[in-house]
């Protein structure tokens, strides 16, 4: 699973990244977690408001910091 956190590195983006990493570890998901922080690259994703979450090339969330439960649902629904 390829997970990207989209954002400039603000506190909200860091919180989303921490939550995603924690949930992936708890679910024992084999995920490569990366960041997209370059403004040009962010624009190419189509995400207008950060933070954003992309899983396997699909935008799953943008513009808010989800709860741990929401992240768990998003990752679980994205499993093959």
Question: What would the keywords be for this entry?
Answer:
80 residues; alpha+beta; 4 strands; globular
Describe what you observe in this structure:
There is one protein chain. With 80 residues, this protein is α+β, with helices and mostly antiparallel strands. 42% of the residues lie in helices and 24% in strands. The chain contains 3 helices and 4 strands; from the N terminus they run E-H-E-H-E-E-H. 25% of the residues are buried. The model has no long low-confidence stretch (mean pLDDT 96).
CATH architecture: 3-Layer(aba) Sandwich
Q: What number is the mean pLDDT?
A: 96
- Helix fraction bin: 40-55%
| Separation, N- and C-terminal Cα atoms | 9 Å
Whole-number count of domains = 1
CATH C-level: Alpha Beta
- SSE topology string: EHEHEEH
Cα Rg = 11 Å
At the fourth level of CATH, the homologous superfamily is: Glutaredoxin
Global morphology: globular
Question: How would you briefly describe this protein structure?
Answer:
The chain is built from three helices and four strands; from the N terminus they run βαβαββα. With 80 residues, it is of the alpha+beta class.
Q: What is the secondary structure topology, with strand pairs?
A:
Layout (H helix, E strand, L loop, with lengths): L1 E5 L4 H16 L5 E5 L2 H7 L6 E4 L2 E5 L5 H11 L2
Parallel strand pairs: 1-2
Antiparallel strand pairs: 1-3, 3-4
Helix pairs in contact: 1-3
């Amino acid at each position: 699973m390829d997970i990207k956190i989209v954002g400039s590195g603000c506190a909200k983006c860091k919180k989303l990244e921490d939550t995603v990493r924690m949930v992936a570890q708890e679910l024992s998901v084999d995920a490569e977690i990366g960041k997209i922080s370059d403004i040009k690259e962010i624009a190419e994703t189509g995400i207008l408001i950060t933070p954003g979450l992309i899983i396997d090339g699909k935008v799953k969330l943008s513009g808010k910091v989800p709860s741990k439960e929401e992240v768990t649902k998003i990752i679980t629904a994205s499993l093959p």
